[in-house]
Amino acid sequence: MKLAFCVLLLAWSVQPVWAEDDLRAVLKELSAQVKELKSQVRASNARVDQLEDELARMRANPQQAAAPAIAATTAAPAATSGGNFAADAAAKADSKPAVTVGDVKGTFKIPGTATSLGVGGFVKVDALLANVSMGRERMGDQQLIYSQIPVGSIHGEHSQTTFHAKESRVWLRSFTPTSWGDVNTYVEVDFFGDAATYTYTPRLRHAYGSIGNLLAGQTWTTFLNTAVLPDHLDPGGSAGSVSVWRQPLLRWTQPFSVAGTPLEIQAAVESPRSRLRGGAVADADAFVAPNADRYPDLVARLNYNPDWGNLSLAALGRQIRNTDPLTDREEGEWGGAVSLAGKISTIGMDNVRFMLNYGNALGRYAAINSFEDAALSSGGDIQLVNTYSGLFSYQHFWSQTWRSTATYGFAQADQPPFVDANLTHQVQSVHANLLWSPVAQATFGMEYVYANRAAVDGRDGDLHRVEFSARYNF
Question: What is the DSSP letter of 399?
Fold first, then answer.
């Protein structure tokens, strides 16, 4: 009995020792497991962060980031299901790159390329109220064309109204970096392709590309300084402006400096087009284009862009040619022209703009579609026509959103005595407008236009027109 009691007493005294050792072992094992789990969580978090960084790089630059993303995904398996999801997302992003912001403001990257692409344009609606019509289905009812203004006893429909949206435009541009410099392209169309008032035929305005200093394609003639063009609603332009021609050309632009003054010289060869007039004519703007041109028009322009404005001096050299279809007689005369233009800041945002042009080959470069390049005598001889023109314009800002422009323009050709009496001798114009741009994407305005055309025989005609316009940029 005593022996049994002793055994029971010994067992009771040893039991707490065994339980404490077991508890310590369990706690030690649990502690090790917790440390292992923490290590796995840290590894998983690091892997997720790595994949997220790789995805961000791929979105910013798909070409450079695609290869590292694939390598990282295949080299280290994810520790958690979240890691596998991120890896799948990385693989999908590589196969279908996301559209990202382009290198130039307002553009986006074409997926898988280094090309930045931009799309834009505007919608413009015009309502024109005129004292006289230019005639049935004439472009002069939609924009100012001086040679279509009726003179003398020739009268169009009075109190004529025209609505159209033909000046609306769409453009596409691209920028691609290369080892030779950026390759840039630009294409723009409007809907002035047909003279009929309610026919909207797309017309190519600009289509050119450039790399470095070289530009090739169709765009503004180098003879025209577009920075000096007045801010008008009517796209026809002032009578004193160089014609707003866009034509195929090759142009080289070379910046340089003289005594620390930055300058720019532009030299271009441009598409030739001789326009002649001979014999009786019905329409003053129906010129003869013999398609016998041999040499391109040669243009050079010097640009100076100080802080207070813009100045340019341009020179033009061209050959006017004709081939008689009956006798095959070929005739050609070389002529030239010069243009001085400027835009000068005055008070606040106000500015003065001017343009002076003269030459015996100015012809089609003056007062859009008003004068011929040369007149043909009865014997088929070419006689160049001295032409001169000029404009003065002032732009005033009433506030940040309201502005006005007033412009006077004048152009005249010294026509030979043997030309038809219907041809244009002189044109004048006055533009005055009030424009409101409450936001950068919209402009509303009203413009008054007065224009006068005088024919060779002294007959003249006046045009009074009021234009209301709404334009929305995109």
Answer: S
Alpha-carbon distance 369 to 388, whole Å?
14
DSSP letter at 201 equals B
Q: Indicate the pairing of strand 382-384 with strand 387-397.
A: unpaired
Q: How is residue 308 written in tokens?
A: 């207070």
Nearest alpha-carbon partner for 424 in 464, 449, 451, 393: 451
Are the beta carbons of 472 and 442 closer than 8 angstroms? Answer: yes
Record the pTM.
0.78
Q: Where along the chain do its domains lie?
A: 2-95, 108-473
Whole-number Å distance between alpha carbons of 229 and 231: 7
pLDDT digits (tens, 9 = 90+) for 273-309: 999 987 666 676 778 888 889 999 999 999 999 999 9
Distance between CA 319 and CA 294 in Å, rounded? 8
Q: Please enumerate in sequence order all residues whose Cβ is within 8 A of that of 271, keeping only pairs 6 or more positions apart, or say none.
A: 247, 248, 249, 296, 297
Neighbours of 164 (CB within 10 A): 20
CA distance 341 to 357: 9
Fold classification of 108-473 (topology level): Porin (2.40.160)
